[in-house]
Write a structure and sequence with these properties.
It contains 5 helices and 5 strands; from the N terminus they run αββααβαββα. It is α+β, with helices and mostly antiparallel strands and about 140 residues long. The protein starts with a helix and ends in a 14-residue tail after the last helix.
Length: about 140
Amino acid sequence: MPKLFRDAFAGQEFAGLYAYPLFKFSAVEACDHTFMTRLSASLDGLDMFSDEQDDLAAVILEGSHALSFDPEGRITLPAELIQHATLKDEVLFVGRGGRMQMWHPEHYEQHRRDALTRAKTRGATLRLNPDGGGTP
C-alpha cells in the first residue's frame, strides 16, 4: 500500500483499515474506523427492516473486512474482494477524501472517462464548503 495512503490511517485506534466491495462498481473501498462508524450510524438512520437498509448493510457492513497493516505497512485483501474488483498484478489506489478505493487500472480508466462524460452531460457543479473543512 503506498505510504501516502498508509499515512492517512496513522494515529487511529485500529492499525489498519476496513475494506468492502463497492456495490456500484468492480472495485474495493477502504476507510478508517471513524468513517466505518459513520457508515454504520447512517445505515441505522434508514427505516428498520426496509429493503434499502437491509441491502446496504449486507453489502457494506457484512461485506467489510478489518485488515491490519503488517510491519511494512502492507495489507492482504481477502479473495472475495480481489475477485469482486478483478484485481490481478497491479492495483490502482484512488483517494476519495475520507475513503480510498482500489481498482484494476484499466477498469478505473474506463470509470473515470465515463464519470467525466456524465459530469459534462449533466453540467455538474460543486458548491464549496464555506468553512473550508473536510478531508482532501
